[in-house]
């Protein structure tokens, strides 16, 4: 959505900050994913609900017949409420509670992605208490680094996620021996906001090694879940609004060496929803400091925490002004020095009351919002096209 496409006149009666979602762009993105799935009949798509669980967004994705990737009982319930079929829901998470496991068992979800031997035994016990068998995949930590922020890397041995590579045989033996567990395959995830396809090639190579190892040992392989992690272009949301799904899916098509007909599952989140969302805020004050000036807006880290948490870049655009650019630190009102969206950033001259858009906020904006400083949770509005 270009700057001139935002309906600023309709924003004037709305309380800021708020989330604004471009549904036509979301639909174009989903079309691009479906095009790749049509070319690769063994590929299965599960939307990562943690990226954005706004009910309207979930319903739009569910209407395409995609599955859901959940990391909490609340996300499982949100996916069910939005219309995702239980048999297409997969559930990961390093700390599933008994209550959450029971909810998923009652719902009849497709798969638990199990992250430890201890969790496997608990799921077996709870499934026994219900008189059912739980379908599981083993989440393997492949000890592969990804070219991304350390806070969103998940595939290293030092990370809390998954079963360490060298523990696979022991945990596999346990899974195959438990009466109320049905082993279904392997699950991997190496991180988020990955743009270097070589990271995914490295994952493919590790998967191939494990498949050969299991086959030689007479162990079942099952299906393969490679997680998600595809990044987007935060610098140029107007020129590159849709992630490079072609390069992503083609990497797995070319490099995975699996038995013919093996289903391959993907868990994309950010690349689906981030580009379609913006955080809309107003300029409260323009403050002149000794060495710099600040554009103080009413949006903050409570509505979009990524810049404060990860020093993540989000493009900021002044939707109201066409005046010459000036350089600002764009900051929020929260009583924390880290409540900064961007520093030393050139944008059209700001005045009190101007509307600004913090772009590419459709992922990990609304889903991570908080009420810190007693801020109210923002509303969400939708551009229908």
**Beta-sheet strand percentage?**
15-25%
The CATH architecture classification of the largest domain is Alpha-Beta Barrel
SSE string: HEHEHEHEHEHEEHEHEHEHEEHEEEEE
Low-confidence stretches: 147-157
Mean pLDDT: 94
Number of helices: 11
CATH topology of the largest domain: TIM Barrel
**Shape estimate:** elongated
Tally of DSSP β-strands: 17
Largest sheet: 8 strands, mixed
Structural class: alpha/beta
| Straight-line N-to-C gap | 10 Å
Whole-angstrom Rg:
22 Å
CATH domain class name of the largest domain? Alpha Beta
CATH superfamily of the largest domain: Alanine racemase
Number of discrete domains: 2
Descriptive overview:
The chain is α/β, with parallel strands linked by helices. Helix content is 29%, strand content 23%. It is built from 11 helices and 17 strands. The protein has helices at residues 8-11, 23-39, 55-62, 73-82, 98-107, 117-130, 168-177, 197-216, 245-255, 270-273, 306-310, and strands at 18-22, 43-48, 67-70, 89-91, 111-114, 134-141, 163-164, 181-187, 223-225, 264-266, 277-288, 293-297, 316-318, 325-331, 340-348, 355-358, 379-383. The protein is elongated and about 70 Å long. The N and C termini lie close together (10 Å). The relative contact order is 0.17.
Reconstruct the topology from this structure.
Elements: H1 8-11, E1 18-22, H2 23-39, E2 43-48, H3 55-62, E3 67-70, H4 73-82, E4 89-91, H5 98-107, E5 111-114, H6 117-130, E6 134-141, E7 163-164, H7 168-177, E8 181-187, H8 197-216, E9 223-225, H9 245-255, E10 264-266, H10 270-273, E11 277-288, E12 293-297, H11 306-310, E13 316-318, E14 325-331, E15 340-348, E16 355-358, E17 379-383
Parallel strand pairs: 1-17, 2-3, 2-10, 3-4, 4-5, 5-6, 6-7, 6-8, 8-9, 9-10, 12-14
Antiparallel strand pairs: 1-11, 11-12, 11-16, 13-16, 14-15
């Amino acid at each position: 959505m270009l700057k001139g496409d935002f309906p600023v006149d309709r924003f004037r009666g709305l309380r800021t900050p708020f989330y604004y979602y471009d549904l036509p762009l979301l639909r174009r993105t989903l079309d691009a994913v479906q095009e790749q799935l049509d070319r690769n009949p063994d590929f299965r798509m599960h939307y990562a609900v943690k990226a954005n669980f706004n009910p309207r967004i979930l319903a739009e994705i569910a209407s395409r017949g995609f599955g859901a990737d959940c990391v909490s009982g609340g996300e499982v319930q949100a996916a069910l409420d939005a219309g995702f079929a239980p048999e297409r829901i997969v559930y990961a998470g390093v700390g599933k509670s008994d209550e959450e496991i029971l909810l998923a068992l009652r719902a009849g979800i497709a798969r638990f992605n199990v992250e430890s031997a201890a969790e496997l035994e608990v799921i077996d016990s709870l499934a026994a208490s219900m008189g059912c068998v739980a379908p599981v995949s083993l989440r393997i930590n492949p000890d592969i680094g990804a070219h991304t922020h350390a806070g969103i890397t998940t595939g290293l041995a030092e990370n809390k996620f998954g079963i360490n590579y060298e523990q696979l045989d022991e945990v596999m033996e346990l899974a195959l021996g438990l009466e109320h567990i049905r082993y279904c395959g392997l699950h991997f995830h190496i991180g988020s906001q990955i743009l270097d396809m070589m990271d995914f090639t490295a994952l493919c190579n590790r998967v191939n090694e494990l498949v050969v190892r299991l086959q030689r040992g007479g162990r079942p392989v099952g299906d393969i879940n490679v997680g998600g992690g595809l990044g987007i272009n935060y610098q140029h949301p107007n020129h590159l609004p849709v992630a490079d799904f072609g390069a992503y899916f083609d990497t797995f098509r070319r490099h995975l060496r699996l038995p013919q007909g093996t289903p391959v599952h993907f868990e994309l989140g950010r690349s689906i929803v981030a580009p379609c969302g913006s955080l809309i805020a107003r300029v409260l004050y323009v403050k002149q400091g000794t060495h710099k000036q600040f554009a103080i807006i009413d949006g903050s880290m409570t509505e979009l925490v990524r810049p404060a948490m990860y020093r993540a870049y989000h493009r900021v655009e002044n939707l109201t002004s066409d005046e010459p650019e000036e350089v600002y630190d764009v900051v929020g009102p929260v009583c924390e020095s880290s409540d900064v969206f961007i520093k030393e950033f050139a944008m059209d001259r700001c005045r009190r009351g101007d509307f600004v858009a913090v772009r590419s906020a459709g992922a990990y904006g609304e889903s991570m919002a908080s009420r810190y400083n007693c801020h109210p949770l923002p509303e969400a509005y939708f551009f229908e096209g």
